[in-house]
Design goal:
Layout: H1 13-36, H2 46-57, H3 61-85, H4 96-113, H5 118-133, E1 138-139, E2 142-143, H6 150-164, H7 171-198, H8 204-223
Antiparallel strand pairs: 1-2
Helix pairs in contact: 1-5, 1-7, 2-3, 3-5, 4-5, 4-8, 6-7
Length: 228
């Protein structure tokens, strides 16, 4: 049976895996730091929407308004990504450097604001997460997720089931999915350790990593013929 997900071109593999692992690690890190600082999850909105529904059912309109603002911030961040990139399909040459630098700027702002105004800082972190999650949502007919693991776990289980049923499954797909899952977990562990020692300043690490990655990609895009 033909492979539904053929191997990506060799020139795309380093970008696909290194970029995906970096972003998933950042998401796991940021989410744990915000949780440790007393905030809600910011890298995904499923639980947040459920909390909004519960607030409405319990007539807790104050918390419902706050929770709705987090969802709106996530959507706004995704909107920034759509404005900058224009297409959800992962493809070398698009303005990922600009998008990553925008995410770094949002996290830097969240770091600066957290000590004096935690609620706006959470909104900034949620906006950064929405921007990241929308940065590349599909690749060669695969759905890519770097800010939450429900979809990753679902895809892993689905592909394992296909393999047990005798279907041909691309090995690189398993490597990518397990890499994203492992990076999210490892990022969360690092975030917990960093937050215990640095507090909200722990967000400076992913800010710096994203800044370096964004500048590197931006420079590569400018210096590579045909990618400008």
């Amino acid at each position: 049976m033909p492979d539904r997900h053929p191997k990506p071109p060799d020139r795309e593999l380093p970008f696909l895996f290194s970029g995906g692992v970096l972003l998933a690690g950042v998401a796991g890190y940021v989410n744990v730091v915000v949780l440790a600082l007393g905030g809600p999850p910011v890298t995904h909105v499923t639980g947040t929407v459920s909390r909004f529904s519960a607030d409405l059912g319990n007539r807790d309109f104050t918390d419902a308004t706050w929770v709705l603002a987090i969802v709106a911030a996530f959507i706004a961040g995704a909107g920034v990504s759509g404005f900058v990139l224009g297409d959800p399909r992962l493809r070398l040459g698009r303005r990922y450097g600009v998008a990553i630098l925008a995410e770094a700027a949002l996290l830097a702002a969240a770091t600066a604001v957290f000590p004096i105004a935690p609620l706006p800082a959470v909104l900034l972190a949620a906006g950064a997460s929405g921007l990241q999650n929308a940065m590349a949502s599909t690749y060669r007919h695969l759905i890519l997720r770097t800010t939450h693991v429900t979809g990753i776990a679902t895809d892993l289980g689905f592909e394992l089931g296909r393999r047990l049923a005798g279907h041909r499954v691309a090995g690189w797909h398993f490597v990518l999915l397990t890499g994203l899952l492992g990076a999210f977990v490892a990022g969360g562990v690092a975030g917990a350790v960093a937050q215990a020692g640095l507090g909200s300043r722990a967000l400076l690490l992913p800010t710096a990593l994203l800044g370096a990655a964004g500048l590197t990609y931006f420079a590569w895009r400018r210096l590579t013929p045909g990618r400008g």
